[in-house]
Amino acid sequence: MAEILLLHHSLGLTKGINDFADELRGAGHTVHAPDLFDGHLFTTIEDGMAYVNEIGFDEITERGIRVASEFPREIIYAGFSLGVAAAQKLAQTREGARGALLFYSCVPTSMFGSPWPAELPVQIHGMDADPYFVEEGDIEAARELVATADHAELFLYAGNQHFFADSSLPSYDANATTLLLQRVLEFLQRLDNK
Question: What distance, in Å, lies between the first and last C-alpha atoms of the chain?
């Protein structure tokens, strides 16, 4: 079974993120979901990002990278929105990565000074009308990554919610999340069979 480092979004380590981790654990996977916000939780993206800006975006990303050093290199990196920056950087640049799961976000691979490793499997999930994912360039970065990698998939879901797979938030979309989880579990199973 897979070992996964799961990095939370800008609202903090919510119950919904923990529930998502528990879904993967229930399928037999080992999931580490560290709190990069020292227990702080927020109810809006604006409030969460104000905290991130106070601490420093680079510092939050570095917290995710530092915590990865506690785990084996042969791991799958997963991130929700804000957590994608560290998860993508780790998957792209840390030797030994087994795969990546990027939820609601994707950054240009050029940000990390090297191309995406062509053989490294990745899934990217977002809503087709999510203003953060579509209007801020993430969808273009995702399409570019998928075009250059051998084992990359971009999944778009109908809707305009950003945190649609967090069951503790009003933006939660149960149908989209069920499909997302099915695709993630299939992805993890394929990695297990390699």
Answer: 11
Cα–Cα distance measured from residue 91 to residue 29, given in angstroms and rounded to the nearest whole number? 18
Q: Report d(CA 155, CA 65) in Å as an integer.
A: 26
**Average pLDDT of the chain to the nearest whole number:** 96
CA pair distance 86, 83, nearest whole angstrom: 6
At 92 the pLDDT is 96
Distance, CA of 125 to CA of 5 (rounded, Å): 17
Q: How far is CA 135 from CA 17, 57, 105, 144, in A?
A: 24, 20, 11, 15
User: With a threshold of 0.85, does the pTM exceed it?
Assistant: yes
Give the helix ranges, DSSP H, for the chain. Answer: 15-26, 45-55, 57-68, 82-93, 131-135, 138-148, 174-192
